[in-house]
Amino acid sequence: MNSDSDLQIAGDILEVPHLLQPPREHPATVAEFVGLARSLAADRAQWEHLVEYDATTRWYHRLHTGPGYEVWLLSWVPGQGSGLHDHGRSSGVLTVLDGTLTERTERGTRALGAGAQRVFAPGYVHEVVNDTLEPAISLHVYFPGLTEMPMHTACARRTGSEPVDAVTA
Fold first, then answer.
1. How does DSSP classify residue 74?
2. How far, rounded to the nearest angstrom, does the alpha carbon of residue 114 sit from its chain's CA centroid?
3. Which of 63, 77, 121, 136 is 20–30 Å from 98 (CA)?
4. Is pTM beyond 0.85 here?
């Protein structure tokens, strides 16, 4: 049996600086964007003092930008929603910071409590709404940065086999 280990053959990688990957300044993978959202969510001091609540419209604030991505902070008072939409060519990570939001898609409805995350690809159609009696706060990471948010009608969720009422659609 050969007793040579990788460490004996190649040496300790931590002692060979040219073999180490340099740490990235900005995220580049889905996992890194999820990690960015989690680290920002955990750092309440960075965002909590910025939050405002507006009874007439959803409040939002661009919290951070980097090469090819941006991070938005949103507040939702009871009853506020996004409407059915997608994010154009952007992918994203939605993280609920406080409260509970409801996400509706063609696959169903789910409640997202504080700490919940959703990752979505370009063209993902959903509606987000605060169905509770308490305000909510969420963090949104878009990559590439959000340039469009096409709105959809409820009939866009139909399977095609259902009759469509032209008056209400």
1. E
2. 13
3. 121
4. no
